Amino acid sequence: MNLFKMLFVAIATLLAVGCATVSDTPSVPRLPASAGSYPLVVESSYTTSADGLSVKDNVTGLTWQKTYELGDRGAVSWVEIQAKVDAMNAQKVGGFSDWRAPTIKELYSGWPYLDTEAFPLTYDNEQALSHKIFLSSTKYTSTIAGSELAFGVNFGTGHIKAYATKDGPRHFFRAVRGNLAYGVNLFQDNKDGTVTDAATGLMWQQQDGAVAMDFPAAKAYAEAQNKANSFGHNDWRLPTSMELQTLVDYTRSPGATDPAHVGPAIDPLFTCTPITNEAGRADYPYYWTSVPAKGSADGPYSAAWYVAFGRAVNENGEDLHGAGAIRFDSTMAATEPGAKDAERVLNFVRLVRTSPEGK
Question: Which stretches within 183-342 are classed as H helix?
Fold first, then answer.
């Protein structure tokens, strides 16, 4: 049973892919089926092993540790993860010795499909559930306040952000094995302003919309592109958060410590419009997804999720969550005064279409 139906922010994401139904939820598109090496889930399907130690995702081909790892203080730090994996492999947990720490793309494949019968979560209240943060192996290529970070997924809210690898709060960890191709893009430049990813079965517009716009304008932009039969197609749409996350290149960021990886967090095959952020620094935009969100349990759907291809900043323009983070923003006007994240309202757009024909 999916316990996330009752969560305040996550509900909108669940509904975007048809995992729950609530009468006042806006209509949003479902994820398309994809038959490549990087499949996006339409309907979740799991098989629990006979010994009860692992769960196979029959869609992605990933096999997950059923329970999650705890340290002496109830959680683990990022630097302890490899030792946990090594111990699992030495013990041949579930009969396997090829367990690994999941990448951030592997870890996000389980959101929002976390079936809590297949993957138990222990918590006392919704506040505790909102802190169920699971760590990935993917390090942030920049630093924040001089600290090294790695990305994690909050399974209580659906956010992705970067967390300190050594200091700060401890989090949770679930190992994975199988399908080493998951999360690896197979981009093809169609030489017509579009790029097809053979791994996901999605076609993308190579350039973004070039201007910042609010959420209603973003939807209108997609409609206008279809009326114009842009690039020979009339089925362009805003991507879901899971679709848009497939484009993130977590080896790149505007503040990468390796100069060869400085830039927007996306393959250089794509164009990202440069911006100046709240701190007056050169940066890259947030991009709208199609998925609405609530800012509070009883509030309206006044926000929508975005993916940050530049720094994910606070109200002062300081990097807070890392390039590649997934957050949400007000759709037309700032509705969360005093929020720690910058409320931009005007974000950018990169349209997608399902491309089963591969072109």
Answer: 215-227, 241-245
